[in-house]
Amino acid sequence: MSIRHGLLALLDQGPRYGYQLRTEFEARTGATWPLNVGQVYTTLSRLERDGLVEAAGEDDEGHQFYAVTDAGRAELRTWFDTPVPRTSPPRDELAIKLAMAVTVPGVDVSAVVQGQRRHSIKALQDYTRLKGRALAGETGPGTVPSEGNDLAWLLVLDQLIFQTEAEIRWLDHCETRLAQQAELQQARAAEAARDGAARKPGRLGRRTRA
Amino acid sequence: MSHTDQSRQAPVLHLEDVTRVHGQGAAEVQALRGVDLKVHPGEFVAVMGPSGSGKSTLLTLAGGLDTPTTGQVLVEGVALGTLSRKKLAQVRRRSIGYVFQDYNLIPALTAAENISLPRELDGLSARAARREALAALEELGIPELADRFPDDMSGGQQQRVAIARALIGERRLVLADEPTGALDSTTGEAVLAVLRARCDAGAAAMMVTHEARHAAWADRVVFLRDGRMVDESVSQDAASLLVSAAANSRKVDE
């Protein structure tokens, strides 16, 4: 629902036309989630259908303006007042991949983990570079420079950074758990071998006692 | 500066196929098993790995605080192993700056005195050393701390003073061990941004950390496992970042 509410939030600040909405959405999120104009118009027509926005005339250049309705404003308040649901987590390809990797014979799980870690660290380096620039006052991509946009962009970057970091920490944790599991299995195998030897004292057992 | 530009310059730090064995016989531990690593001017390298992977050993070898069992450590082209004790102490003081997790500032000295102490040991006059210290504090954006004692500073302020001390004089190599350890996330970020800026201005830095978010400030992140470098991640040119950041990320669903 993020585009829908994102557009409502922008329109809450005054009537705007499609292309303008796209530019402003990207200014705040640093083109992290690129929008095409088609998506903007589709969303606008659905919002209009649902009575959340209404057409607000054209300018001299023929741009169709939209304005938020009272119902749209109420919808926006509800959005801000309601936490983003965490109850049905989105499918995570990496979690599915690792869950499969540990059960499919012949997959080098630690290679999967390290390959992902390298990739994720790389992404983290890239985001951090962007943040370094944003902190130094250089604006994000295609932004209309303004303090509010810079702050919004920084927050989005921070979110990407913390999320990627969480993934890497989880990978570290997976690796530790895999190592523990391997140790446990080795210990069990050794124990089984000892038990086996104990049942046949004719071989190792007697010679060492002698 | 791109990675290829850096490669053309002589490295500030070169760990040449170093191994380090602690203990003997049954108690023998191979802390490092043949690590080759170069850090060039302007380059910020982060070393990551689980505890026991050899990260700290790598840092103490690079700083001349310990010697490798085999292989050698070169700082600005000088093999540390060939130096007399006195010369080694000089290289350590003049070429290498250290930033530790617990800052290691001397409580009885002010910020400016802490920073100028190594320069005075180098034989600089107290006045000239103070001038350099004030300039370093200015550069780190904390000139007002000059005459304050460590106990009267926040953790973030102490750490910035420690970085100023690490960078004063001709030092071109900064070695950092979890430099943001006890700091909150935005203060830690400010400290890393300072290190980053110093590298962009030509210094070379190697930082040991287990925090991916901190390592990500580096140009290059190397992964250690059981005393070996197993992998690395090199940051690309800044110009292509925006494109890839956008391309790498998911699209929002309506």
UniProtKB/TrEMBL annotation, chain A:
Residues 91-178 form the Transcription regulator PadR C-terminal domain. Residues 190-210 are annotated as: Disordered. It comes from the Bacteria. Residues 7-77 form the Transcription regulator PadR N-terminal domain. Gene3D superfamilies: 6.10.140.190, Winged helix-like DNA-binding domain superfamily/Winged helix DNA-binding domain. InterPro entries: Tscrpt_reg_PadR_C (IPR018309), Tscrpt_reg_PadR_N (IPR005149), WH-like_DNA-bd_sf (IPR036388), WH_DNA-bd_sf (IPR036390). Pfam families: PadR, Vir_act_alpha_C. Residues 200-210 have a biased composition (Basic residues). This is Transcriptional regulator. It comes from Kitasatospora aureofaciens (Streptomyces aureofaciens).
Automatic annotation (TrEMBL), chain B:
InterPro entries: AAA+_ATPase (IPR003593), ABC_transporter-like_ATP-bd (IPR003439), ABC_transporter-like_CS (IPR017871), ABC_transpr_LolD-like (IPR015854), MacB-like_ATP-bd (IPR017911), P-loop_NTPase (IPR027417). GO terms for cellular component: membrane protein complex; plasma membrane. Coiled coil: none annotated. Pfam families: ABC_tran. The keyword Hydrolase does not apply. Residues 13-251 form the ABC transporter domain. CDD domains: ABC_MJ0796_LolCDE_FtsE (cd03255). The keyword Chloroplast does not apply. One of its GO terms (molecular function) is ATP binding. Keywords: ATP-binding, Nucleotide-binding, Transport. This is Macrolide ABC transporter ATP-binding protein.
